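User:
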Amino acid sequence: MSRRKDYNLVDDSYDTRVPLHNEEAFHHGINFKAKYIGTLDVPRPTGRMEIVVAMRRIRYEFKVKRIKKRKVNVVVSVDGVKVILRTKKKELMWDERKLLLMHDPVYRIFYVSHDSHDLKIWSYIARDGSSNVFRCNVFKSTKKKSQAMRIVRTIGQAFEVCHKFNTAQNAIAPTGKKATETEQQKIDNKVRNKHDICLIPDGKSKKDEVEETDIDAVDITELEPNVGHRTGVTDLDSVQSKVISFPPYESFQSTPAVTRATANGLSPSGKISAITGDAPLSLHHQMQLMQQQVLQAEQQTQVAVSQVQLLKDQLSAETTARVEAQARNHQLLLQNRELITQMSELVSHISEMEKRIS
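Assistant: Predicted structure:
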C-alpha cells in the first residue's frame, strides 16, 4: 500500500501580507508574555542602524549593571501598548495601576523592530507626551524565536486597525451631521406651524375668530355660517379645507403694516385673525442663542486675558534675564580692567628689571 505523504505547509507567521489577528481582537487587547530589559532615552533616529545600535547598547548597559529582567505582560490594542508586571499566583493584585509600567498610545510609537542577531530581542521607540523625548524600550520574548516577530507584526497591525477605524469614523461623521440638520429642520417646521395664523375663508355673513382650544369641546363641522362665535381648533390638518395658513409669526413682526393690522385683530385682507397668547418658542431659542454667545464671548475674554498675562510673564522673565546678562557683562568688564592693570604693572616691572640688568 502506498503511504500517505506529509506535505510541509507554509508558515504564514512570516508572511507580512497575511494578518495575524482578527481586527475585533484589537478592541479587547492581545496579550503576550515577555521579559522587560530596560528603557533609555535616545535621540530621534534617522535610520534602522541607529535603532539597532541603541537596542544593543541598552542591552549591554543593563547587563553590565546586572539589572535583572522583569517578567511582564505586553497588551497590544487600539488604545496602545501596555506593559504590565506579572505577579505570582499567590500575590494577586487587583489594582492594575500599581502593576502598570508604561502605556504608550499607538500614535506615539515611532518604530518597532527585532534584533536580527538575536531573534528573541525586540524593541519599540515611543515619544513621551510631556517632554517629547524618544524612549527605547527593549524586551525579550520568553517563547520560541518567532514570538518576537509576532509581537512586532501585531503592533504593526494595530497601526492599520487604528487607521481603518479613524477612516470609518470620518466617513460616518458627515452622515450623522446631515441627520441632525434634518431633525433640526423638522423641529423648526413644527415651531413655525404652531405660530401660523389661521383664517376662515370668505362667504360668511359674520367673521368668526379661531383660537387654540380643545378640539373635543366644539366640533368644527357643526358650525353654521350665520352664527358668530369662537370655535376651538388645535388640529390644523383635520380642517385643512376650511383653514388657510399664513407665514410664521416672525415674518409678521418684520413688517410694520402687518403688525398694526394683526394688533387690531384684522389681517391685511380684512379678515379676523387670532394669535396664540403664549410666548413664541423662537424667542426662547433666540434667548438661549444669545446666552451661548455671551458665554462664548466671556470665554474668549478669559483666553485673551490669560494670553496677556502670559505675555507679561514672558516679558518680565526676559527683562530679568537681560538685567542678569548686563550685570555679568559689567562684572566681566571689571575683571578685564583689573587684568589689564596687572598686565601693565608686570610690563613696567619687567622693563625696570631689564634696565637694571643692562
